[in-house]
Design brief:
338 residues, alpha/beta, TIM Barrel, three-stranded antiparallel β-sheet, 12 helices, globular
Length: 338
């Protein structure tokens, strides 16, 4: 939810009884601190989860990047723009971001969650000493076992249905593409730490199913994109209500790393390219964001990072707090007390 979640959304979710969350992986330390302070100013003392990316820092390949710029040049030209002269690593991984770590130690968010892997043992220990509960996304048992061995408090079982970036630790390794419920059940049966289910869950019935399989909680993202507190633009919101919601696809073309997106112009472009042609994550994102900005300036929203899970057709338009309360009511209707 980096780039879509906001302090207002996190605070509203927290105030309604959920664990409000914000992704800060696409901003810097100062931006993250500002978001945390803003969420706390709007909340009534509820817990806050801050999510960061722990990917390997990108290795530049100027030849691949130059070729990618040339491949996208006709798309830019269609909207009267020129592509960037060169591409840059647009944000820093938490594994090397000392300033972000210092802000977390100072501000002490109740929960810190990790995507794409884990930071070093020393960083984990500093966060523990600051009083943060630590959780991490995993996509298979081996990743979960590594997370547990590192002393993380809980794991998030990210199923293949999930919207946004696939959280595999090694993007070049094999991916069994386990669904949310299969993965949740495997992890519950093998681990001694709490398991949180994530991916394709959009309503109380889905949460109840996850709990029935042994998860202690469910993590929902796409369900909140249409909320007014979300920073999703009008094109993203319109696409979520369109037929594209029934056709989410995995693409690496937008950012350089596989992510589930509403079917749009960028995902269709990605169908015709080899993974070897796409620059490393998040260097490719520099081109992706520039192309989206150029097209958006001409009222074309089909090149946006419109991340969404397979449950996208179930998205509802209502304030965040109302949605949390509706989810709780649906959960109770399914036989579980929220």
């Amino acid at each position: 939810m980096a780039g879509v979640s906001t302090p207002a959304m996190a605070a509203a979710a927290s105030n309604a009884g959920a664990l409000g969350s914000m992704g800060v992986g696409a901003t810097n330390a100062a931006g993250a601190a500002q978001m945390i302070r803003a969420a706390r100013a709007l909340s009534k003392g509820g817990a806050l989860n801050i999510n960061v990316f722990c990917h390997r820092p990108a290795t530049a390949n100027r030849a691949v990047e130059a070729a990618w710029i040339e491949r996208l040049r006709p798309q830019f030209a269609r909207y009267g723009a020129t592509p960037p002269v060169a591409l840059a690593e647009i944000y820093q991984s938490f594994v090397t971001d000392e300033a972000m770590l210092e802000q977390f130690v100072e501000l002490r968010p109740e929960v810190v969650s990790f995507h794409f892997g884990l930071p070093s043992a020393q960083r984990l220990e500093r966060l523990r000493k600051a009083g943060c509960v630590l959780i991490a996304s995993v996509t298979k048992l081996a990743e979960a076992e590594a997370v547990v061995a590192a002393g993380v408090d809980a794991v998030i079982a990210q199923g293949y249905e999930a919207g946004g970036h696939r959280g595999v630790f090694d993007p070049e390794g094999p991916d069994d593409r386990l669904g949310t419920f299969a993965l949740t059940r495997v992890l519950v049966s093998k681990l001694r730490v709490p398991v949180i289910a994530a991916g394709g869950i959009m309503d109380g019935a889905g949460i109840a199913a996850a709990l029935q399989l042994g998860a202690v909680a469910a993590q929902l993202g796409t369900a909140f994109v249409a909320c007014p507190e979300s920073s999703a633009d009008d094109g993203y919101r319109a696409a979520l209500k369109s037929d594209a919601a029934f056709h989410t696809v995995m693409t690496a073309a937008i950012s350089g790393r596989l992510a589930r997106c509403l079917s749009n112009n960028f995902t269709r472009l990605g169908e015709s390219v080899s993974p070897r042609e796409i620059p490393a994550y998040p260097i490719a994102y520099d081109a992706g964001k520039a192309l989206h900005a150029a097209a958006k300036a001409q009222s074309e929203f089909g090149y946006g990072a419109q991340w969404a899970g397979q449950g996208a057709p179930l998205a509802r338009v209502m304030p965040t707090g109302d949605l949390v309360r509706e989810l709780a009511a649906e959960l109770e209707e399914a036989g579980w007390r929220a």
